[in-house]
Structure to design on (369 residues):
């Protein structure tokens, strides 16, 4: 297992886990989400092939009400 | 009397034909996109998603702003706002609300763009840039705002830029390529209305000089419908508001009031108000009055 940080919390994921696999654990459709790995956006086209590496800092965001 | 009546009919008929040209307005274009409504509304602080949807509908807005936040940490009901917004009809304007430095604001903008691109929403390249300098006043940090605006413009964003009502900062933001400058009427959510109309006048005069269609949007501080009307009467092209609707006792009714105020204020601006005078001017003819004047024609007591 490798250690990563997702939305500020530590998680362990199996090596080779892709970003897309991570998104599929969320409760909303994945097209409502965007992902940043180590402060860079991962484009949608690369989600399925982007492997998560040990120590990655990942942000998974969606849109919420705001002004 | 008949000929007069006939003339009147003709006049009425022709005015109906010319209604479009008399009552028309210039298209309202920001960053290359045309919006129907001059109100842009926020989507935050509603009691329920249904109340938000109804309020947006009543406001007539076809552009709404949304925030970018970590998934699953904010909505305890497990609802997603995207299920309550008509993405075919509404342009989403992602914002960088809550960011206190240029780096984070740029990150938020890129993430918002990524979501909207996936959803195929026309707002994908738009961002409401907001870089705050202080959590109590929520006033913008001008240095960080300018840095973030430059970066986002370079990355191809249409930046609708929240600013203070300082005319100098507003001019700087336009110079570096903001698609719209959005001066605050008063602090965000304060409901104080437009505290310094003279600053707003200066901003409008500066930014529209030789560029009359450059969009200036009053963002923040609206408390009630008359504040919206005032912004438009001063010459603002748009108004962006959220709390004044969401926290009104009846949000849907207030949304409708804002819709009417925007139409009224814009029409009043286009119509051109009369100058203010110290003394009265009679609306009824001076001749043929069956009463004598107590003080004569000079206005002086006899």
């Amino acid at each position: 297992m490798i250690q990563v940080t997702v939305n500020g919390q530590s998680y362990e994921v199996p090596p080779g886990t892709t970003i897309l696999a991570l998104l599929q654990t969320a409760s909303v459709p994945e097209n409502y989400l965007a992902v940043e790995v180590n402060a860079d956006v991962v484009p949608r086209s690369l989600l399925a092939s982007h492997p998560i590496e040990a120590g990655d800092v990942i942000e998974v965001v969606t849109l919420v009400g705001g002004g | 009397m008949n000929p007069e009546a006939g003339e009147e009919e003709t006049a009425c008929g022709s005015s109906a034909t010319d209604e479009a040209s008399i009552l028309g307005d210039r298209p309202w274009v920001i960053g290359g996109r045309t919006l129907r409504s001059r109100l842009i509304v926020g989507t935050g602080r509603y009691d329920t998603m249904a109340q938000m949807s109804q309020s947006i509908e009543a406001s007539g807005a076809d552009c709404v702003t949304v925030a970018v936040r970590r998934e699953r940490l904010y909505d305890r009901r497990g609802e997603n706002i995207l299920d309550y917004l008509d993405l075919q009809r509404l342009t989403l304007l992602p914002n960088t609300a809550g960011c206190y430095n240029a780096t984070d604001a740029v990150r938020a903008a890129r993430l918002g763009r990524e979501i909207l691109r996936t959803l195929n929403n026309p707002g994908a390249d738009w961002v409401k840039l907001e870089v705050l300098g202080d959590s109590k006043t929520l006033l913008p940090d001008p240095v960080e705002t300018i840095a973030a605006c430059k970066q986002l413009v370079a990355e191809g964003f249409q930046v609708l830029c929240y600013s203070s009502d300082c005319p100098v900062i507003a001019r700087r933001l336009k110079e570096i390529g903001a698609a719209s400058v959005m001066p605050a009427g008063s602090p965000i959510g304060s409901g104080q209305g437009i505290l310094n109309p003279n600053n707003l006048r200066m901003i409008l005069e500066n930014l529209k000089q030789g560029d009359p269609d450059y969009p200036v949007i009053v963002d923040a501080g609206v408390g009630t419908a008359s504040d919206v009307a005032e912004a438009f009467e001063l010459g603002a092209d748009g108004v962006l508001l959220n709390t004044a609707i969401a926290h009104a006792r009846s949000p849907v009714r207030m949304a409708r009031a804002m819709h009417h105020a925007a139409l009224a204020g814009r029409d009043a601006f286009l119509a051109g108000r009369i100058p203010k005078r110290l003394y009265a001017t009679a609306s009824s003819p001076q001749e043929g009055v069956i009463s004598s004047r107590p003080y004569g024609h000079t206005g002086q007591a006899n």
The radius of gyration of chain A is 12 Å. The interface with chain B takes residues 7-8, 26-28, 31-36, 39, 41, 43-44, 59-67 of chain A (CB under 8 Å). Chain A has a mean pLDDT of 91.
